[in-house]
Amino acid sequence: MRVFPGSPGTLTSLFLRIAQCVFAAGSIASIATTSYFYNFTAFCFLIASMGLQIVWSFGLTLLDGIALVKKKVLNNPILISLLVVGDWVTATLSLAAASASAGIAVLYFNDLGNCKFGQECQKYQLSVALAFLGWIAIAISSLIMLWLLAAG
């Protein structure tokens, strides 16, 4: 199996996994500091999805870190298959949650003319933006993993 940038155990992979964790944690922190997020199902789904992304990405960050320290590139076809499935599941959930939350944010805070929640509106919008950035990072990782699986 060839080694591509972003392969498990490379510095690019570590950077992508850290970015996924940071964006997901920022999204959760932004929305969880509001008082009324639990009134919107889409925002609760966003928190659950970003929580799953943090767990998945943090575990793979540790795996990449250990592989970098031991100077090993992880090219096991079974591991790559597992990473493809996990990345695609978390990417799909992240995109669905971010899109649903963006729809609610646009509907309530722009289309209806005003936001009755004050500063919370900006936190909701920031959380959605960070969720989309996290999705971009995991989408890149999932495409790299799919490419590795097809090339191997």
Q: Give start-end ranges of low-pLDDT stretches.
A: none
Instruction: Give the overall average pLDDT.
Output: 88
Main beta sheet strand tally, sense and closure = none
How would you sum up the global shape? elongated
List keywords for this structure.
4 helices; mainly alpha; 0% strand; 78% helix; 152 residues; elongated
Polypeptide structure, described:
The chain has 152 residues and is mainly alpha-helical. Helices cover 78% and strands 0% of the residues. The chain has four helices and no strands. α1 runs antiparallel to α2 (41-69), α2 packs antiparallel against α3 (77-111) and α3 (77-111) packs antiparallel against α4. The termini are close together.
Topology:
Blueprint: H1 11-32, H2 41-69, H3 77-111, H4 119-151
Helix pairs in contact: 1-2, 1-4, 2-3, 3-4
Quick summary of this structure?
This protein is an all-alpha fold. The chain has helices spanning 11-32, 41-69, 77-111, 119-151.
